Amino acid sequence: MPVTVLLVDDEPLVRAGLRAVLEAQPDIEVVGEAADGAAVVPLVRRLRPDVVAMDVRMPLLDGIEATRALLRSVDAPPKILVVTTFENDEYVYGALRAGADGFLLKRARPAEIVHAVRLIAEGESLLFPASVRRLAAEYGDGSGNRAARAVLERARLTEREGEVLRLMARGLTNAEMAARLVVGTETVKSHVSAVLAKLGVRDRTQAVIAAYESGFVAPG
Question: What sequence ranges are listed for the domain HTH luxR-type (predicted)?
Fold first, then answer.
């Protein structure tokens, strides 16, 4: 089955460019478009895409608020890929904190766009981990804010789960973590699932944000 994608951007040329790049791939299908975040929830309910590729800055409802609305009101929501002009943007970090799964620069090469959509859909690695670390250093509270510290304390991660969270923050895939920890990939998947469940987050991007916000992992 192809990865289905909904494109959300107020610039028609951006949507057209993304559509052309993605639909050139046999395993990706663009199922719809929208010009503003306000249209995301009804379109997702109707089209059920695997991934929403969404601009972070839009005139009516921006990508941050659209992400919050989507995660709040849709059961089994799709993965959310924020599309942005500027990498070091507080709006991008705000969208990640709100629940987005990763971000993509509008100037990215076609191969990078395709890779980002596939990686977000698979959910087995962190997209652009170095950039997420930079955003956390710039806009997060590296000393550990109280709410995030409380989440980590309540999670009571085991020593191995803590190792897995640190490796996730570095962007390692399940296979790479398995090799580093000298265990099987199924064991790593079990540890990742346990970390997500204990932290109460839906994916590894949110787990890594929680790790940075709490001070469990130092950005940089």
Answer: 150-215
Measured between alpha carbons, how far is 101 from 206 in angstroms, rounded to an integer? 7
Q: In this model, does residue 146 exceed pLDDT 90?
A: no
Q: What pLDDT sits at residue 20?
A: 97
Burial 109-147 (b: 16+ CB within 10 A, else e): eeeebbebbebbbebbbbbbbebbbbbbeebbebebeee
pLDDT in tens, 172-203: 999 999 999 999 999 999 999 999 999 999 88
CA pair distance 36, 99, nearest whole angstrom = 18
Q: Which two tokens stand for residue 88?
A: 């070091």
| Contacts (Cβ under 8 Å, ≥6 apart) of 36 | 8, 10, 58, 59, 60, 61
Tokens of 172: 């390692």
Buried/exposed code over 77-96 (b: 16+ C-beta within 10 A; e: otherwise): bbbbbbbbeeeebebbbbbb
Chain mean position to CA 95:
9
Measured in degrees and rounded to the nearest 5, phi and psi for residue 124 equal -105, 10
> Hey, what are 203's tokens?
């994916």
Prediction pTM value: 0.87
Report the greatest alpha carbon distance in the chain. 49
